[in-house]
Queue: 3 jobs
Job 1
Amino acid sequence: MLIVQKYGGTSVANVERIKNVAARVARTAKEGHKVVVVVSAMSGETDKLINLAHQASLNPNEREMDMLLSSGERVTSALTAMAIEDLGCKAMALTGRQMGIITDDVHTKARIAKITGDRAKKALDDGYIIVVAGFQGITENQDVTTLGRGGSDLSAVAIAAALNADLCEIYTDVDGVYTTDPNIVPEARKLKKISYEEMLELASLGAKVLQTRSVEFAMKYNVPTVVRSSFNDNPGTLVVKEDKDMENVVVSGVAYDKNQVKLTLLSVPDKPGIAAKIFNAIANANVVVDMIVQNVSSDGKAADISFTVPKTDSKKALKITEEIAKELGAKSVALRDDIAKISIVGVGMRTHSGVAAKMFETLSKHGVNILMISTSEIKVSCVIDSKYTELAVRVLHDVFGLEEARA
Amino acid sequence: MLIVQKYGGTSVANVERIKNVAARVARTAKEGHKVVVVVSAMSGETDKLINLAHQASLNPNEREMDMLLSSGERVTSALTAMAIEDLGCKAMALTGRQMGIITDDVHTKARIAKITGDRAKKALDDGYIIVVAGFQGITENQDVTTLGRGGSDLSAVAIAAALNADLCEIYTDVDGVYTTDPNIVPEARKLKKISYEEMLELASLGAKVLQTRSVEFAMKYNVPTVVRSSFNDNPGTLVVKEDKDMENVVVSGVAYDKNQVKLTLLSVPDKPGIAAKIFNAIANANVVVDMIVQNVSSDGKAADISFTVPKTDSKKALKITEEIAKELGAKSVALRDDIAKISIVGVGMRTHSGVAAKMFETLSKHGVNILMISTSEIKVSCVIDSKYTELAVRVLHDVFGLEEARA
């Protein structure tokens, strides 16, 4: 088999752990598999570099930021390759560029356009274990780019797709995907298997085990992906195509996200094209809007528009929104950063009715007020006051019976 | 003018100093010059990475070592470019690869083959200050290489040559080139001007202000180079082509080098081709031999061959020498690491006689035994017991009148 193994920051936090990673990689290779390893920066390194950048400049250039940040993964890839060689295997570290990872030129959150991977293919055939610096690529213009937070997951899945790997293993500091955060609900259960769609919803909802875009990529190219711990040999959670069994389970997991803020434009004169105007401007600043709710006022002449954006982009989004508000003649702009989004996810929702109602009822029964609602085929999300987060997660986990063994 | 400015590790040791560098660069640009900046890794970073590598592997792969080490200069170049932009100038960080620095594939001490520099030329014309990550290049096969200790000096001079710069300024933590180490001789005097040849001898003799190969490069391409401090505005020392004035000075400087070891093959049967055999094997391991002395034994049938190599290569050189000794039937191999090389340098030696004799006489008068002698047109070197280093430097500095103002 050709296996891609990705190791996150905590798994390569120091040389001792890098040696453990090397041992696992060597063991996999000695079992007869071809192995491509993708590594993150040693934990803390990326934040250290970001901190240096903000000391050096009030507003660091993003192109230079990418050159800066990409160095963390280079360091780990070189050290990991050395440690693997020390165990008697042939190993070769490759940068994003040497791996042929071509991206667009949106610095600090670039998207992968293609992966050539010719050098890696040849080296694999020559018996090398490949160690790729994750999180990074290169533009057509030869500039270094990075793929955004958690981008090494995306590197791994994209490389697995490009090389037609049989399996992509994401090694992290948790055992797999749980029905919810075990720190909040001790009865949370590890899932043996989950569909791409469910994983995608969970990831986009803030469950941090797998980066959203990497799940999209895995789904698009049908890459069987395992999430497991680098600190033990537990089997982890397999992320695969939806199968018949999965439909029997109405809700697979409860997720929460405290990293969003809610922006509201109050009393926007209701004219066609207003929403487009607002959300185009925000999209042009590369800010991703999550939920959107629009209410028309009682007289029908003005609307309140609320939406959520990541906390990290709140300043940028607020500035743009305030400009737009002025332009549109809105009354004012309100920002709330004490919110949380609680979501339930499950492919079974497609064939079971009343799931959303049960969620609203449960929250209401416990005195949790709902500020915004958003639904998809396999998900219901509610924005609530952040102080109720833990309570909401616990009661939903309980009411949907997630602590019981999955069928 | 087009000016290349190189800043060493102590000049960019932290963000505060990087901001000082940025201020100097911006000032130079605002005076109307085009500026290319070459930066080293923040001081201590390279050693930290080397240390990590030796923790990860008993014998780190040199290709991976280069990928590892090159990250230090990337970090500094990105931070420096950000800091310059913060002062209102346009700046662009370029890696060795983006600068088009092509080298051979001798990892950890690669030689520059050519510099294309097209992107830098265009960016300079577009009004950018270029900040190049020093110490690194790339092979034709797209692998990252490093240029050896002090390699950022070489990057700077080679870039100055390739771009036809008017001046190459090497900023370091000393004021310029001194007649000898002021730590040993407080009366040591800063030279206003020195010829490439003298600088080359001084650099190769261990004076650490400018890396040897960078001086060779400056001489070959006639790059006017200034060595000066980044911590003040003192004018520094200009390294240029030899001129008439310089001939009047017999000795320009006294240098010492404690970073060599002496290897001796004892009683090698004297046959043709023996020296070639030894030094070919050592050269093939990329170890640079400095001094060589061969003595034929009294009966003419066996020879003792002594030579010096850098301390860092002593293990490698000893291993090779022991193998060769066995093959050639030599009696044994002796290694001495308690030696120092003391040298006097001056283009005036070409036209003044008796300089070497005066050196030997002075050392002898102070009880310093000479173990090896080597001379060139503008230099005399003696290997002595290292415990006499400071004494020898002091008495030679005195006897050649170096504390007086230069004519």
Job 2
Amino acid sequence: MDTIEFAVLGTGGIGRRTLEVSTQKDELTPVAACDRHGVALDPDGLDVEELLDATEGNIAGDGTGDTDARTDGGAAVERGDGVKQHGADAGIVASTQGQRVADPIGEIVDASDRLDAVLLALPNLEHDFIPRVAERFADAGYEGVLVDVLKRSRVIGMLDDREEQLVDAGITFVCGAGATPGFLTGAAALAAQSFVEVESVDIRWGVGLKSGYEDNRGTVREDIAHLDGYDMETAREMSEAEIEAVIDEHDGVIEFEDMEHADDVLLERAGICDAEDVTVGGVLDVRNDEKPVTTTVTVTGRTFDGERATNTFELGDETSMAANVNGPALGYLKAAVRQNRAGDYGVFGPAELMPGF
Amino acid sequence: MDTIEFAVLGTGGIGRRTLEVSTQKDELTPVAACDRHGVALDPDGLDVEELLDATEGNIAGDGTGDTDARTDGGAAVERGDGVKQHGADAGIVASTQGQRVADPIGEIVDASDRLDAVLLALPNLEHDFIPRVAERFADAGYEGVLVDVLKRSRVIGMLDDREEQLVDAGITFVCGAGATPGFLTGAAALAAQSFVEVESVDIRWGVGLKSGYEDNRGTVREDIAHLDGYDMETAREMSEAEIEAVIDEHDGVIEFEDMEHADDVLLERAGICDAEDVTVGGVLDVRNDEKPVTTTVTVTGRTFDGERATNTFELGDETSMAANVNGPALGYLKAAVRQNRAGDYGVFGPAELMPGF
């Protein structure tokens, strides 16, 4: 594969780490990045190290509390609480490569004819924010790949509504390409290959967040929204003290069952099973860095010869959620670039990029 | 995806079971099949049940002892010893759908303009048999997918030598798409996504072959070629009694280390690690049906943030090797059809169809 020139929208946790990981990957050249206040563009490739130094502590959230961009199964890497936001002089504008502009995303849209792929590492500030960003690229006639790392089901439907426009432009959009749903639904899709019928997919993640806790308060808040008696609205309204009280009640270890993740709809989309056959849960320990449980995907199904069995995929406990977000995001991006170059456009979940079921 | 009309060359174990599995898969319509003596063609779809009844016990081997087509990590499903061959009146010619023809493959080549995909479930009778079959399709201007389930490295190189011809015709060739290397290197490619550097891939299979032993003598023979002190030539020359003596020496449980499989070259091709970092081994128990060890893929690597970890993929012990050959073969076939329809041609290993590393 030839070099892939790509842009990263957002230089919070995911955006920054994607830039960092890309320096360790052949074929990937980051040529543009933006945050809320600025943009850096260099067709010869960004100086990632300088940019990372300048954007340290940059968080793209705007305080709306919509943390759709949390993509790592528990350990937030982008969030809406903005605790680390350093104001208008921080971030890309502080880089020697950066310029302050009124519309940073617009600058990248304008330069998109030279891009093969764009990673949307933005929080979904409003529910349709990511879909609207996709529209801007389509309107500009961008022919290439867009990848997001969201995990809420509703965004996928909104992208589907725009699929014709995306296809007309020549865009291959991969939705939810981080750890979960991306990595783990991909694993489920592969594990399903032994079977002619999948009975159940169980995705269970573990996150140890002691040293990362301060950086991930927004995520913990979002996770609380998944607990019985809470929802996104109530969690958004809670004070820090109320959040702490919930954590204390659970002795720092919060267990989640039947989370509303996009995993279910993405596996159904890929034809692997019904959404209702997918369960997602996890355990978050904010007082230890060790994972309280091993992140595991189990797929139970029936083989063509009538046996019932369970295939299992386990992530090593030493793999950080960051590693499990950024590797797959770039892996799916590469696969999508190949697809896009061949002229295969539209909206895809990660599991649809796997061997067919 | 629209319906995929496909042909199966060979109605030994893999060919027959692929036809069977395809009846349980949406989108797949088998329209042609052949064996050594005959061909069955029906653009509206074959009557698989009738064909399976007619071809029961059909083995495509010719007694040369070249068992390259054994593709399941230990339990042969095609082999060269022909123990079940029932002569020229058996197989497809015994089906009401079959016709005796001098050149069954040629008949399918002639009808290939109506095919989306062809599964080559043939033993690699001579070393370049499969590559030569591919050439015949290319010469006929076939635009579509070819999939084999071989596992010897050398065939891949021979296909690469013909890549230009395949690309010119419009062929997408997926090589080695069965259980191993196909399924298990695909799993390794996915498991690698947590890492920026893969240190080692260890593929270990278990096969219990008590009730299947009589049907799989050819494989056991090939497996013996992997033992210290044996090679393909010596194993080919051994009498049945000598084979039995080796099995007795091992009390029916034969362990294999550092097998020459295509897994290593396919993972290197996909850029995941060096071939030398891949080890393949397994345990074959010919006196029990239970697997002596669980089939496991472990991938150890380094994350972008400096951790070392191991991700693991395990197949449930109840999944037969047949299930693990045929599901992935058809899964990769579907993925390749999508690729082919988009105009992406050439020779690919299964791991190259996964998210990029």
Job 3
Amino acid sequence: MSALRLSAEPLAGLPEVAPGDDLAEIVARASARSAPAIEDGDVIVISQKVVSKSEGRLRPLADVQPSDRAHDLARTLGKDPRTVQVVLDESTEVLRAERGVLITRTRHGLVCANAGVDQSNVPGEDVVCLLPIDPDASARKIRARLRGLLGAAPAVVVADSFGRAWRLGQADVAIGCAGLAPLDDRRGGRDAEGRELTATIDAVADEAASAAALARDKAGREAVVVIRGLERYVTDDDGAGAAAIVRPRDEDMFT
Amino acid sequence: MSALRLSAEPLAGLPEVAPGDDLAEIVARASARSAPAIEDGDVIVISQKVVSKSEGRLRPLADVQPSDRAHDLARTLGKDPRTVQVVLDESTEVLRAERGVLITRTRHGLVCANAGVDQSNVPGEDVVCLLPIDPDASARKIRARLRGLLGAAPAVVVADSFGRAWRLGQADVAIGCAGLAPLDDRRGGRDAEGRELTATIDAVADEAASAAALARDKAGREAVVVIRGLERYVTDDDGAGAAAIVRPRDEDMFT
């Protein structure tokens, strides 16, 4: 048994989440029924979808009036022009619109397909789910409320599945976090040979999101995963959040 | 306790690995000393560095004669021209050479910095370590040998740390694998609302590599991590390998 042993386990018994629900209370209630209960040093990885739902970030397509640009893009891509309009509303920049794929930069600076807008696991026909307005703020709010309810302040990560430029498939990344070092900068450290490490910054929060993705059943309602073994990255203050992971626009070499 | 609980634990007591070493035997010996021992259904994530070392993929820079192009790039980037030459030798295409960063497509089709060539955790001055010639073949070979030594055939993943186009920090990905479904294609499945899932292919092997990265101490000698809880993705045959994760050149929208 190693000090660095990592475990990831979904929180059982979560109900369907609806707009206005107190997500932290739902998590705290499920934690009370689970053993071991959530404690300081844990990392709670929550699917973006339930965070967005609790915040009412749902948009009925019937209310959407597509612009000419949305109509044009929709025609090119074979998409619903109303969905394209919602994606445009959530974005600052369209990076690629080809092969049925719409890749944009969101208002948060995230580069992903459809600005994170999607329809899976959303109740009702013709309703789409948007990313939280400020996923770091969402994580901080949930963490503060968990602290009040549980007397423990686990780190909170808001995770979503993103495609990658040169690799197939999607991997979960952190779009929001509180109380977890998003990046572990080991530059200046030494390797086992005593040589200085170069260019080594570990994407801790993204890797935690990916580990959590492997522990949960995405088709089901396992929207919350508890990770143990990352205590060394959990901080008392909320920290810089996942905004710190976004590569600044002027350092982007690929758009 | 959930059926999907995931755990990742480094294999303790690995020695320094040198060219010609039988890596599977080293892993099997460490497994015999660890409890619980490696078994069918486990996923063994091995750092690329030790795989490369065991295969003798080390190149002394003293033997390298930089070309004019390597000298030019080295001057622009502030790098050692001999290292740049090694990177060029490992690559089919230079994608970006700016800000001190050299991003290429390797002979395997991987897009990463410096073609995966690096100097950290390599013994001796002025020796660089290259990626395995065929990391999927490396994984298959280690798996076959483990099957012989242990009577169990865990999946094997060869992992390396890659940067990402729009996100800071590095996350571990699978550059080779055997016996693990590299991608879980859930298109055509249904979400909790019974709606058909779209565009949902999970990058299982990459997420496993990322989970393992969180469990080990990169500066130390914890080059092998055992993941439990992914039995549903472990296959008897070796499968398509991590080559299946590489986005085909003609579907690349960003280079």
